[in-house]
User: What shape does this take?
Amino acid sequence: MDDSIFDKAAAAATLMLQASGDDRARWLRSVADALDARTDDLVAIADGETHLGATRLAGEVARTTGQLRLFADVVTEGSYLEATIDHADTATTPPRPDLRRMLRPLGPVAVFSASNFPFAFSVAGGDTASALAVGCPVVVKAHPGHAELSRLTASIVREALHAAGAPDGSFALVEGHEAGVVLVQHPVITAVGFTGSLAGGRALHDLAAARPAPIPFFGELGSINPVVVTPAADAARGAELAAGLLGSFTLGSGQFCTKPGVVFVPEGSTLLQELASLPLPPAQPLLTDSIAAGFDSGIERLLSVPGVDLVSGDAGGPVVVSAPLGAMAEHGEELLAEVFGPVTVLLRYSDFDAVVPALDAVEGSLTATLHAESSDNTDAVLRSLERISGRVLFSGWPTGVAVTWSQQHGGPWPATTSQFTSVGATAVRRFLRPIAYQDAPESALPVALWESNPLGIPRRVDGVLVVGSTPK
Assistant: This one.
């Protein structure tokens, strides 16, 4: 791999640190506009490599450009900086100096593209957008499942950044397994964003931690996304829930990180009966040969567990299996292991009170869903779902992640390796670190900490949140 990529990224980091939020917002909007203009070309290549369908892929391009524009809004609004000022006060004990604190960019960031979202979690996806937004150069490692698309996307991003005035070296693309290892270990790289398998993510996480100067690794590694259906909800709308579950666990051939992988239902469930009678979508090619092989072996493993029944489906296509909740006592590891692809496991309980202890065995997930009626007492279940997930849904299904200021797309290990999310405005927090300035002359301070607040951003001053002033 050309080592000049790192030299250019390091030089770009210095220039990006000096760029204003308005500058960086302009860069992001330029990339978004350029991608929108090439949607047809991008979708055609992506469909040929991923088989995800033109409609789905066009929507994903729109999501990708939408999140680029969201981060442009984030950096111009300014609250992400957490600018805080405490004026000097000799009356405190001990006397307080003038202290001013804000978040500053880490430096060049490595981003690993995901297989299942060739736009939104790939070359110009949320990790790239959030890093560029705060002034961190990005080196992306392309996913081999959509290599041609990655090259075209990267060329569009580079040209758009250059046209908007971004420094040379602010963005680069590399390919190949060895390049990924070099990325994580190179001393110029200050953080890593990764979306992929638990095994691959854990290996890179360990490399990042083993460096002479360890760096943060922000990984999204795996999620089973449990769903709890109360007896009352099943009785009131079991057929509706069955249709919703079918649409969710087969969406994108079950290759969403938020796919509902395990569903707790009452014995004799209407949901189960209805789901067994619904026609399943036809089998679709999965993203890669390794994913297809993993799906086949995962189904074989599930069906070998004593007590597991095949509810519907067959080899190669969507599958629904069911087991009594008691099977978890000896086979919880197999029943709760993520199988990437169109499969869901229905765990049948006879006593709703047994669901909370069962949830204790579920590893961290991105989401958890509760379908209940107003008459249900679900406090204990809700506390358990909060403990094991980063987003709790009370209706609908977890597939589909809104890109908003309030979104949380993270969860306890192994869902993610950090408290910070990879989707939504706070995704930028991963690539920032706090710096405090004590008794600094204003000429030495970043503009965000100047007394007059010329940027007009929200700040906390002497403990009071000040929404902002209008720049003159």
